[in-house]
Design goal:
It is built from 15 helices and 12 strands. It is α/β, with parallel strands linked by helices. β9 and β10 form a beta hairpin.
């Protein structure tokens, strides 16, 4: 057998695997779109705020909002004003300044007239030393902890120990919640208090929106192209993927920007794991593993209605660092809990949830890279016919566009957040062009995250933010 023939057959075998993996990924995504569509039709859109209050306010449990802050001077005050104005019966806000090197603590002291206070607490979840606690005479719901730097998971553990409510809500300091977000997000805990241990909500891109007094008063689309492309990504990830995984009982991640948890359940698993950049996914997987092993009934839900707004990166360097870090966090969790992969003991979580991570996050970046490398190789070997290449590319890119437009259609038919037709036109434009360059960049960032994981590189990197500017 000639070397050329061996090379050709090897390339064909690899191409067959790449095509099979691509078909499997697309089948997963199509299933997500269908399941999410059925779920949204069943809920029949968002409930009006007044009706929401009448239905849930009386039985809504107290909530502690946990806000870790590191170098958030630009947005922390605006974010806290938004939180303190939330429409919810009983809640507190616990801010943890995680050894910030900028003026985060000074901004908080000046804005809320903070003064030292004392509060007793037990160190159940591990964290670095708390230097001092601050309270505000004008905002009794606010508690600020100044602690030594330990990372986001460390800061969240400190906030959990300091919290007093049975439900805790983890947040990012650079996020804004809609006024009724807590009432909408707590619904699973009210309707099924014995089983629900966690619930997530939708996160949206705030770039391009008008903000007044810590609230989004007008929804718009970003002027920055990168932020616009991320808007489509967020719609697809939350309104389609996470809602579908929740319906299938296999939701493995609740965004660190907005997630509600039963405090006792979090403490049962030891709080957030330290030394990981994917603390949000790690906690959810720990909860799955703990309750599955104990054979206790539980549910981790996703509610599409509560909206949390976050600032998206607008430069390639910052976005690349963010995406590499996200991918590294997913791989860390996958390896830590590899015993769950395709393990029937963990039911749909092990078979579907971890099977998807294996296919998309572990193998996906290499499969996609192999696909791009095989095209010229097969053409040079005379195996690839141009007509088949064009057909394959048309189907591949067309399917990607269909998924993005499908997620946009779900948003428009059920939630209707975008008020202007031009917003939808811009998002449809983004859904098309993201397949030509942006998708490939994301794969490079995921490969970079894989390399960081293999070489055990740690840290978050610098995340430069503009703050909540008014559009």
């Amino acid at each position: 057998m000639s070397a050329a023939l061996v090379l050709t057959r090897s390339a064909e075998s690899v191409a067959g695997f790449v095509i099979a993996a691509g078909v499997a990924q697309n089948a997963f995504h199509l299933l997500q779109l269908v399941v999410a569509g059925v779920a949204l039709r069943r809920t029949r859109g968002a409930v009006e705020p007044a009706q929401l209050w009448r239905r849930y306010a009386e039985n809504a449990p107290p909530i502690s909002l946990l806000v870790p802050a590191y170098n958030e001077e630009m947005s922390i005050v605006e974010s806290l004003r938004s939180l303190l104005a939330l429409q919810y019966p009983t809640f507190e806000v616990v801010v943890v300044n995680d050894g910030s090197k900028d003026g985060t603590l000074a901004a908080l002291i000046a804005a809320f007239d903070l003064a030292p206070v004392e509060r007793s607490y037990d160190t159940v979840a591990p964290h670095a030393r708390i230097r001092r606690l601050y309270g505000s005479p004008h905002q009794p719901r606010l508690l600020v902890a100044d602690k030594e730097n330990g990372g986001k998971a460390d800061a969240l553990n400190a906030a959990i120990n300091l919290s007093r409510a049975p439900i805790v809500c983890s947040m990012d300091a650079d996020s804004l919640l809609e006024p009724d977000a807590l009432l909408r997000g707590v619904r699973p805990f009210v309707e099924d208090p014995q089983r629900v241990v966690a619930a997530g909500g939708t996160v949206r891109v705030v770039n391009g929106c008008k903000i007044q007094h810590g609230r989004v008063t007008r929804v718009g689309t970003p002027r920055n192209l990168l932020a616009l492309l991320q808007t489509i990504e967020y719609l697809r990830a939350f309104l389609m993927a996470r809602l579908a995984w929740s319906e299938m009982g296999s939701l493995l991640i609740i965004s660190g920007a907005f997630g509600l948890f039963r405090r006792d359940a979090v403490l049962e698993v030891g709080g957030y794991s330290l030394g990981t950049v994917g603390e949000d996914m790690e906690l959810v997987v720990k909860l799955h593993r703990h309750f599955r092993r104990a054979k206790r009934p539980y549910r981790i839900a996703f509610v599409p209605e509560p909206v949390c707004w976050t600032e998206a990166p607008e430069t390639l360097s910052v976005l690349g660092r963010q995406r590499a870090r996200w991918h590294r966090g997913a791989l860390e969790t996958f390896v830590r809990h590899r015993a769950m992969v395709l393990n029937p003991r963990y039911g749909r979580v092990g078979l579907l949830g971890f099977g998807y991570i294996l296919l998309v996050d572990v193998l996906g970046p290499f499969v996609e890279l192999a696909g791009y490398m095989l095209v010229p190789a097969l053409w040079l070997l005379g195996v690839l016919h141009v007509d088949y290449l064009y057909a394959f590319l048309a189907i591949s890119f067309g399917f990607g566009v269909m998924l993005s437009i499908g997620a946009l259609a779900l948003e428009e038919t059920e939630l209707r957040r975008f008020p202007l037709v031009r917003n939808l036109v811009l998002l449809m434009f983004a859904a098309i062009i993201e397949n030509f360059g942006y998708r490939q960049l994301n794969n490079l960032w995921r490969l970079h995250g894989t390399w960081q994981f293999i070489t055990r590189q740690h840290g978050w990197g610098t995340m430069t933010r503009r703050g909540f500017t008014r559009a």
